[in-house]
């Protein structure tokens, strides 16, 4: 079973590979020349990795505000890893008294069932939202 920890700069290449191999949107892929896009998230402690048998099998970045936490990026390559990452984000919200967690996903990813199982009770389909694609926004009140 994977464990979740804060990412370090040494994880940069593995995080890039997880994103590149699991998110099929070229605009979201992180090429080696774009690693500097990830560094601020890592430096601020907003990137987390799922590690199984000393291998990074998932990654998640968060944008944490006073009233909400956005799962900015999440990608995994092992069943159950996404669930563990989301649960970790929820636990951070509880610790920091943040009342809401939310994210968005392209409609074609068919993520509605996943987020519903995770207790995200709010969803909104936005037509032609990002890169001309339909996207869902999912939200959950942290209790």
Descriptive overview:
This protein is of the alpha+beta class and 143 residues long. It has one domain (3-141): Aminopeptidase (3-Layer(aba) Sandwich), CATH 3.40.630. The chain has 4 helices and 7 strands. Strand 4 (69-76), helix 3 (81-95) and strand 5 form a beta-alpha-beta unit. The longest helix has 15 residues, at 81-95. It is globular and about 35 Å long. The chain starts with a strand and ends with a strand.
The rounded Rg comes to: 15 Å
Number of helices: 4
User: In percent terms, what proportion of residues is strand?
Assistant: 35-45%
Contiguous uncertain segments of 5+ residues = none
Number of domains: 1
Round the mean pLDDT to the nearest integer and report it. 90
Q: Could you state the order of secondary-structure elements as H and E? A: EHHEEEHEHEE
Helix and strand composition category: alpha+beta
Main sheet properties: 7 strands, mixed
Name the assembly state.
single chain
CATH class: Alpha Beta
Q: What is the CATH superfamily classification?
A: Gcn5-related N-acetyltransferase (GNAT)
Number of strands: 7
Shape designation: globular
Second rung of CATH, namely the architecture: 3-Layer(aba) Sandwich
Helix content: 25-40%
The spatial strand order of the largest sheet comes to: 1-2-3-4-5-7-6
Rounded to the nearest angstrom, the distance between the terminal CA atoms is: 26 Å
The fold-level CATH name is Aminopeptidase
């Amino acid at each position: 079973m994977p464990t979740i920890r804060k990412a370090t700069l040494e994880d940069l290449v593995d995080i890039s590979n997880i994103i590149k191999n699991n998110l099929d949107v070229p605009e979201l892929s992180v090429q080696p020349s774009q690693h500097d896009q990830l560094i601020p998230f890592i430096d601020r402690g907003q990137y987390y990795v799922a590690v199984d048998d000393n291998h990074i099998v998932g990654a998640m970045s968060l944008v944490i505000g006073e009233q909400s936490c956005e799962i900015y990026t999440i990608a995994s390559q092992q069943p159950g890893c996404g669930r563990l990452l989301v649960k970790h984000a929820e636990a951070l919200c509880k610790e920091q008294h943040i009342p809401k967690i939310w994210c968005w996903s392209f409609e074609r990813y068919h993520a509605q069932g996943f987020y519903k199982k995770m207790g995200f009770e709010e969803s909104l389909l936005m037509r032609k939202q990002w890169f001309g694609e339909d996207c869902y926004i999912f939200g959950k009140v942290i209790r």
